[in-house]
Backbone:
């Protein structure tokens, strides 16, 4: 997309997204709310100590060129503006991966998901029980114990200027998360429950809502409170909740190589979940994708890198 | 939604959404050289069935060519021109009948009505031999703007220099004198005037120098021009002082339009008609239905951001201490469904600063 002409009056360039057009075709087009976004803004350019005074704090930001609107609904509004009634907030919570309890695979810096039994067998020990850290059982995720490999993201104030015993403002506590994942590749599970997407858009992106209230929210044990005394949280300061997820690979990934041939790449390095197990680079293909976790309250978004792996027949 | 609940969404109330309808007009100028000359007829597509020919704005074998109009002609079975030995006699009748039944409709006995010169279908002069200009939807869009149609025809006797005498055909009364008794929508009456030196026969014109010579169907995007626009008054209700040499290939003495309509194919007649078009212009109309959403950001709204760069170690980079006012910058407006699906996006041409001392309304218009 080109940049919008910013030489004169402020103009608005509005388009329907591909999903909007689809909903229009379905006769199901209804706009009921709006949000404001700032995808192009790098707040690192905000110089609140500029020697020339406050008029210069945001000079560089205001000169940021703005792109024309994308029609892909997944490409816009990645970061939204938030309304808080209080103006004196100084800290806001973040969501970040817990690399202590659910570390990523070190070579790819992503979570490796073996998608079928053959790949699982090639990457587990002879007893077929343990999967190395950074690996998620995509073939039968609920067949493992709930405490077996999963990915976990923690929410809270990641600062050493506050202690974990300080409270996260209750209004900033995430009790619900949107989770989005490509439905062609698989579905999501909590550590012990299969999750059901609330919607699947025109790009096959499934949206799940996982909730702290396991009874009413349908998220099972996906969302829990981080203990104040927990030493294994990735949050340095006051803690909020965490979300833990597993991925169940789709039937198509298990039974067909089509998506791996179309979207994937051949392995470039051997997979070595433990020192005694290795899957040669020439023996598998992989697809890199992303799982997106967003806090419903704060709108903070975390993109989790996922690598789906399938052993060649 | 409780006002003290943090949120990135704001509901639109019934007062925040308005439906509007606007008419957009575009000027469509078509010079005669595009129709005949510039591309040596490589922009003219003919068909083996010979019922009409298509005119493009560029050689039609090019992928960048756009179809702009079709030309054809025909006469009624009750016309004096109809004859079994004529070239493509049945096809010319079929074309006329097809256009007539779509544009004029049927009478009480379910017979196809003929085109009527003044729009009064119950009586008056019928036009039973006509040329038809069918404009592509690309040009006419939803309709041709009433009162904007103008067609200049070269009516000089000479075939080789037809534009030395021009008649201008307009729907000058279209804006308030159009008819509504057609099954294909509204139509106006086309009037010819001599635009260079007197060309029209003095016996034909009214006190204002005009003479009715066809009909323009605004929504259908079709102009119906009587063939007698090329004839002298002595022939079949001709309108000119002197016959035009419409089709010299038939002979210098009998190459008028009457002879051509009977002896030549539809394609040949369409070519000859095209050869005499000097200029053609009209304004089209697009009916634009718009939904306008007023996205109101009050002073307490949207002062914080979920942008990853907004925080450094969970601390806002735009504040030194908690007493500083929060600030954010808007570049995008997202319009959402009740299920939080992003249905439309609007981009601001430059970032807009938002803090607790400012509030604004962004007006987002979606056109359909």
Residues:
């Amino acid at each position: 997309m080109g940049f919008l002409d910013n030489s004169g009056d402020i103009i608005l360039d509005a388009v329907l997204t591909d999903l909007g057009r689809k909903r229009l075709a379905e006769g199901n087009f209804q706009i009921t709310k709006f949000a404001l976004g700032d995808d192009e803004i790098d707040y690192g350019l905000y110089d609140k100590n500029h020697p020339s005074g406050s008029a210069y704090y945001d000079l560089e930001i205001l000169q940021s060129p703005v792109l024309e609107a994308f029609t892909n609904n997944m490409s816009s509004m990645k970061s939204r503006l938030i309304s808080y009634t209080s103006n004196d907030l100084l800290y806001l919570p973040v969501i970040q991966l817990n690399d202590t309890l659910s570390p990523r695979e070190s070579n790819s810096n992503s979570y490796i998901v073996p998608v079928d039994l053959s790949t699982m067998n090639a990457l587990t020990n002879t007893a077929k029980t343990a999967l190395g850290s950074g690996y998620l059982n995509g073939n039968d995720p609920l067949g493992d114990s709930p405490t077996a490999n999963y990915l976990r993201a923690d929410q809270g104030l990641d600062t050493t200027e506050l202690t974990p015993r300080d409270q996260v403002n209750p209004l900033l506590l995430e009790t619900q998360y949107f989770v989005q994942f490509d439905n062609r590749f698989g579905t999501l599970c909590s550590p012990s429950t299969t999750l059901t997407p609330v919607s699947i858009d025109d790009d096959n992106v499934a949206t799940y809502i996982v909730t702290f209230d396991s009874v009413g929210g349908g998220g099972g044990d996906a969302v829990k409170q981080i203990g104040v005394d927990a030493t294994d949280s990735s949050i340095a300061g006051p803690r909020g909740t965490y979300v833990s997820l597993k991925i169940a690979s789709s039937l198509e990934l298990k039974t067909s190589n089509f998506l791996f041939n179309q979207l994937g790449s051949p392995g470039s390095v051997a997979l070595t979940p433990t020192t005694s197990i290795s899957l040669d680079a020439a023996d598998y293909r992989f697809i890199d994708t992303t799982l997106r976790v967003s806090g419903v309250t704060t709108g903070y978004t975390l993109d989790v890198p996922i690598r789906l792996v399938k052993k060649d027949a | 939604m409780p006002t003290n609940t943090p949120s990135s969404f704001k509901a639109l109330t019934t007062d925040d959404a308005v439906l509007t309808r606007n008419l957009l007009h575009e000027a469509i100028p078509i010079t005669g050289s595009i129709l005949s000359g510039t591309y040596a007829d490589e922009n003219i597509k003919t068909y083996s069935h010979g019922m009409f020919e298509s005119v493009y704005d560029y050689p039609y074998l090019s992928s960048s060519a756009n179809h702009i109009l079709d030309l054809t002609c025909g006469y009624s079975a009750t016309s004096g021109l109809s004859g079994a030995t004529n070239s493509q006699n049945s096809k010319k009748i079929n074309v006329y009948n097809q256009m007539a039944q779509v544009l004029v409709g049927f009478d009480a006995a379910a017979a196809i009505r003929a085109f009527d010169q003044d729009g009064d279908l119950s009586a008056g002069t019928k036009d039973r031999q006509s040329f038809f200009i069918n404009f592509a939807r690309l040009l006419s869009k939803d309709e041709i703007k009433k009162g904007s149609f103008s067609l200049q025809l070269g009516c000089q006797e000479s075939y080789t220099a037809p534009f030395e005498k021009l008649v201008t055909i307009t729907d000058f009364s279209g804006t308030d004198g159009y008819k509504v008794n057609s099954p294909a929508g509204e139509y106006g009456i086309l009037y010819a005037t001599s635009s260079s030196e007197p060309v029209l026969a003095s016996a034909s014109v009214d006190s204002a120098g005009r003479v009715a010579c066809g009909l323009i169907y605004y929504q259908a995007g079709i102009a119906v021009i009587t063939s007698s626009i090329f004839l002298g008054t002595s022939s079949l209700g001709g309108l000119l002082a002197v016959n035009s040499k419409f089709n010299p290939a038939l002979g210098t003495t009998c190459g008028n339009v009457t002879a051509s309509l009977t002896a030549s194919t539809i394609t040949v007649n369409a070519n000859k008609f095209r050869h005499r078009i000097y200029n053609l212009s009209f304004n089209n109309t697009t009916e634009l239905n718009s939904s306008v959403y007023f996205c109101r950001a009050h002073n307490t709204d949207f002062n914080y951001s979920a942008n990853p760069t907004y925080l450094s170690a969970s601390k806002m980079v735009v504040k030194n201490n908690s007493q500083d006012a929060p600030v954010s910058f808007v570049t995008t407006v997202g319009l959402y469904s009740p299920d939080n699906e992003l249905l439309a996006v609007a981009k601001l041409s430059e970032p807009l600063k938002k803090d607790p001392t400012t509030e604004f309304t962004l007006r987002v218009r979606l056109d359909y």
